[in-house]
């Protein structure tokens, strides 16, 4: 009988499910898209039921469209968008929409955390308190929605909620728990000091597990819903960037991951969690127990391209739109784009900054705008690599994953801007493959992740940097780098205008603030 593992990649734009056999061959893939809700500036929410329903639909399609028999699915594991708060009551019912990793309404709560714990917070968690992380979201609910807080009994992160609905078991794996910034990374336990400082009951924090821990079989309810067998074994799973690093074979410090999903990530494997980034970069537990990685995050990488497509080319597909950028030149004929359209996290932890096109000329055509968007996103990644370079960290290979890695043109732009060879995977499913690897190792198909990587990680084409292009991009990046400082205050004023506008729309009697501007 054939045997498969399912890697469930719970992204921000969609859930993607891959069925992988023992040789690492992806036998079938299905996905299901869901929307992002942004009811106010800075807010970003999703309905956790959409994740569960989408996962079930994708599994049903795998079974029906690709003739994968439920009895052949030996194990399942997960990769999940990080940090999102799913708040549950005592009966484990969802209390409010999930607040996602790119929800930046929590600046005041981050300031409270800094004021109370200062550098001690970095010592405990390895991170600075930033808007996207889970703890500031918990504090926001506590301060702004007391009725909901009164009912809150526990919380989960996105993929942990999906796993809960599939198995009935509550747990968070370590790689996602570090992203809550409530974990004491040295002790490997929830930090009592942080919980006490913010009066959060320890009983709210779920059981901590490893990424390969077996959680249990599929529950009877989910088996009926999805067509899965109850005998399928379910393993913990990991934060999407940890899973992507695993699926891309990032297991040594000379390798860097570049991920373009909804967010953008530059990630480096770290020999130890004791690094000197001092919260400028995130430090997270890896999916491999005892290992760590650091990363910087562009909040709106793939999201900037999908915003651009939705707004200016709604009826074209991504491939057609992206290919059009080849009609423009290196530097988009002198047009720059900054992708700060949802605020930014690294290197500027700034919820108020917004994006811009700089240098629009009457001769610019749409291919110039498209190219500027692609290049601006990669310039934001160059800012992240510069942090590593400033620390004299060396790397010689960049593995590119995520939806953005589907485009050869964009991969060449990456190689040129990074001035480093960029390699893609044969199949761009980095996080999904990482999730499948967790199930394969959990089932005992392989004795170690290194053995599993030999079978499961297949590199595709390498894109070599073009020296002349790299020099031109290095000069353009010097200009790009100045845009943040020059537009920061303008962005703040415009955001204030928008915020007043939306609160006046909700309360038409208060028009004065808008008039002042
Ligand atoms: N053909 C394509 N070429 C380049 N980029 C693409 C293409 N298709 C999708 N993308 C980009 O990939 C992003 C989605 O990537 P994905 O890894 O699926 O995201 P997530 O895991 O956040 O759901 C889109 O926002 C888009 O910017
Ligand atoms: O916030 C982070 C990492 O800290 C994001 O990378 C999220 O984990 C979302 O990932 P994608 O949906 O973009 O893959």
From TrEMBL:
Pfam families: FGGY_C (PF02782), FGGY_N (PF00370). Substrate binds at residues 82-83. The keyword Nucleotide-binding applies. One of its GO terms (molecular function) is D-xylulokinase activity. Its EC number is 2.7.1.17. Keywords: ATP-binding, Carbohydrate metabolism, Kinase, Nucleotide-binding, Transferase, Xylose metabolism. Transmembrane segments: none annotated. It catalyses: D-xylulose + ATP = D-xylulose 5-phosphate + ADP + H(+). Residues 257-442 form the Carbohydrate kinase FGGY C-terminal domain. InterPro entries: ATPase_NBD, Carb_kinase_FGGY, Carb_kinase_FGGY_CS, FGGY_C, FGGY_Carb_Kinase, FGGY_N, Xylulokinase. The active site is at 240 (proton acceptor). The record marks 9 as: Important for activity. Residues 4-247 form the Carbohydrate kinase FGGY N-terminal domain. Catalyzes the phosphorylation of D-xylulose to D-xylulose 5-phosphate. Belongs to the FGGY kinase family. PANTHER family: SUGAR KINASE, XYLULOSE KINASE. This is Xylulose kinase. It comes from Schleiferilactobacillus harbinensis. The lineage of its organism: Bacteria, Bacillati, Bacillota, Bacilli, Lactobacillales. The gene is xylB.
């Amino acid at each position: 009988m054939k045997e498969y593992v399912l890697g469930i990649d719970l992204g921000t734009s969609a859930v993607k499910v891959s069925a992988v056999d023992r040789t690492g061959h992806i036998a079938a893939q299905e996905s299901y898209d869901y929307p992002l809700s942004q009811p106010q500036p800075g807010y970003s929410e999703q309905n956790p039921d959409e994740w569960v329903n989408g996962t079930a639909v994708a599994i049903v399609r795998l079974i029906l469209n690709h003739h994968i028999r439920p009895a052949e699915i030996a194990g399942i594991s997960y990769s999940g968008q990080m940090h999102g708060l799913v708040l549950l009551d005592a009966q484990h019912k969802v209390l409010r929409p999930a607040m996602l990793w790119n929800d930046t309404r929590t600046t005041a709560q981050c300031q409270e955390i800094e004021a109370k714990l200062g550098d001690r917070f970095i010592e405990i968690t390895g991170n600075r308190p930033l808007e996207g992380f889970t703890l500031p979201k918990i504090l926001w609910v506590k301060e702004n929605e007391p009725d909901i807080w009164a009912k809150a009994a526990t919380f989960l992160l996105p993929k942990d909620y999906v796993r809960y609905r599939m198995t009935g078991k509550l747990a968070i794996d370590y790689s996602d728990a570090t992203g809550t910034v409530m974990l004491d990374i040295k002790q490997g336990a929830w930090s009592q000091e942080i919980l006490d400082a913010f009066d959060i009951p320890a009983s709210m924090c779920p059981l901590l597990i490893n990424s390969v821990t077996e959680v249990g079989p599929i529950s009877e309810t989910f088996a009926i819903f999805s067509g899965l067998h109850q005998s399928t074994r379910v393993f913990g799973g990991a934060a999407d960037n940890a899973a992507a690093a695993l699926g891309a074979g990032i297991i040594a410090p000379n390798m860097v991951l570049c991920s373009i999903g909804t967010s953008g990530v530059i990630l480096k494997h770290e020999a130890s969690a004791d690094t000197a980034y001092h919260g400028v970069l995130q430090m997270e537990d890896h999916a491999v127990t005892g290992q760590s990685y650091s990363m910087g995050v562009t909040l709106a990488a793939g999201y900037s391209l999908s915003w651009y497509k939705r707004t200016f080319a709604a009826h074209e597909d991504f491939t057609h739109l992206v290919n059009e950028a080849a009609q423009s030149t290196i530097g988009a004929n002198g047009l720059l784009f900054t992708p700060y359209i949802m605020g930014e996290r690294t290197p500027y932890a700034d919820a108020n900054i917004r994006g811009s096109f700089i240098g629009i000329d009457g001769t610019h055509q749409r291919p110039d705008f498209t190219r500027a968007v692609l290049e601006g996103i990669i310039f934001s990644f160059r800012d992240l690599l510069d942090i590593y370079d400033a620390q004299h960290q060396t790397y010689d290979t960049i593995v590119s994953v995520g939806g953005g890695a589907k485009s050869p043109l964009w991969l060449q732009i990456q190689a040129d801007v990074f001035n480093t060879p960029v390699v893609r995977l044969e199949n761009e499913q980095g996080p999904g493959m990482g999730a499948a690897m967790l199930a394969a190792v959990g089932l005992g198909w392989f004795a170690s992740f290194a053995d599993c990587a030999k079978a499961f990680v297949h590199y595709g084409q390498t894109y070599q940097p073009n020296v002349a292009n790299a020099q031109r991009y290095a000069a353009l990046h010097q200009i790009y780098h100045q845009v943040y400082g020059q537009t920061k205050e303008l962005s703040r004023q415009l955001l204030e205008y928008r915020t007043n506008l939306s609160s006046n729309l909700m309360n038409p009697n208060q028009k004065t603030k808008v008039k002042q501007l």
